[in-house]
Amino acid sequence: MHRESARNNPQAPLTHHYLDSTHITxxxxxxxxxxxxxMLEASGFRGEEPDEDRLxxxxxxxxxxxxxxxxxxxxxxxxxxxGRLHGPAWFEPVDVTRLTASIGFxxxxxxxxxxxxxxxxxxxxxxxxxxxxxxxxxxxxxxxxRWSLYGRAESMRKELLSLGVHPRGLVPxxxxxxxxxxxxxxxxxxxxxxxxxxxxxxxxxxxTVYNTSPDLETYFGSPNAYHVFLRWRPTGAAPAxxx
Length: 243
What we know:
Strand order of the largest sheet: 1-2-3-4-5-6-7-8-9-10-11
Distance between the termini: 14 Å
Structural class: mainly beta
Strand content: over 45%
Largest sheet: 11 strands, antiparallel
Mean pLDDT: 86
Radius of gyration: 20 Å
Number of helices: 2
Number of domains: 1
Low-confidence stretches: none
Number of strands: 11
């Protein structure tokens, strides 16, 4: 979620359920080793998402795990990761194997700061007999001192219209499965205001077009989205394209 290529984009990607481990967890154990530009990490955590009461702390359980191997060299970085999530969603009580891979660039092109990320993620729902893939390409280009252009292209397959309480121990064929295809393209820009006191202020706007499979058009049509927003970063926040 915290990528330089998405620094100015206020929208969460549609594919974030394919690319991150979990939303919120009350317990995490993490370890890793780094040698030069290579890093190997492992973590244990609670795979189940929190319930509707967000003011308490759910019982910690280390019932899920993930591992990641990554490399960083100059402006380039790449990683491959995988994990097993134990029953992440209460309405679909099955374990999920999640795989991800990505490659990114965060440097300068023709003296202009540019961050680009290409990523793939896959969810394999154990016991349901299918895998869902998601793809993401996003970018952030500073074309002038106070002006940046950003964008994101996504394509994914998702189980939406057949969501419901899936009984445990389900085997393929016992429950109807409806797989939908969704693609989205976002293009936006942000202009930093010439205000030097109190932080960095910016005015941004973006436009998103969607392409959905026919089963979704019946319920949602062919939606588009527009955003206009004001961004504020406190004094001392890192400037763009600095980790």
